[in-house]
């Protein structure tokens, strides 16, 4: 569910894996891929959310560190290994090329998790992988992948549809402040499990995602109860 809060273990369990060591995981599930992002100051990659509130620019990943004398941050990101095998970057790029080639292929569906702080992750939602670019970051060439929040937020038969014109992703800094302010618990009952970031006044009714004053922590029980009352 959009904006669900998870521990690292819960995130791994939700994907039926023992560990998620890579940030990019092409077709981790037969129906979708998974990426882990972070906008924290010490994040290893430059990920960001566009001002439209529904588009993510996700930086591709480096080669694995092969020795202490070689810093991957000084090497251009690659779409292929020396063996010719596609890297995770390459797999994402090939998916985009297929989507853009003739219009017959649907864009790759990508589930995005964001690290809010140590031990706290947020499921940002399901996105479609629509484009990429190669940029020079001042030191080397890197890939930047463009993903847009999908109107269909379900991989099951029952779709949870969003009106993107009325949806805005909650910024990381807002989530961090809300988590600290609410003490990592539902503001209505004190529950510390199955939490979600909730708009007090829904975005569809004029509420903002950009202020901590309009975002709070709710458990799934109270989140669903509130949703049932909103027309």
Strand content: 25-35%
Say what the CATH topology of the largest domain is: PUA domain-like
**Which H/E pattern describes the elements?**
EHEEEEHEEEHEEH
CATH arch. level architecture of the largest domain: Roll
The CATH homologous superfamily of the largest domain: SRA-YDG
The biggest sheet amounts to: 8 strands, mixed
Shape: globular
Average pLDDT, all residues: 88
What is the CA–CA distance across the termini? Answer: 19 Å
How many domains comprise the coordinates? 2
**If helices are DSSP runs of H or I spanning 4 or more residues, what is the number of helices?**
4
Q: Helical proportion?
A: 10-25%
Descriptive notes:
By secondary structure, this protein is of the alpha+beta class. The protein folds into two domains: about 5-160, SRA-YDG (PUA domain-like, Roll), CATH 2.30.280; about 170-230, no CATH class. Helix content is about 20%, strand content about 30%. It is built from four helices and ten strands, in the order E-H-E-E-E-E-H-E-E-E-H-E-E-H. Strands 1, 2, 3, 4, 5, 6, 7 and 8 form an eight-stranded mixed sheet that branches. A hairpin with a 2-residue loop joins strand 2 (about 25-30) and strand 3 (about 30-35). The longest helix is centred in the middle third of the chain and has 15 residues, at about 90-100. The two termini are about 20 Å apart. The model has no long low-confidence stretch (mean pLDDT about 90).
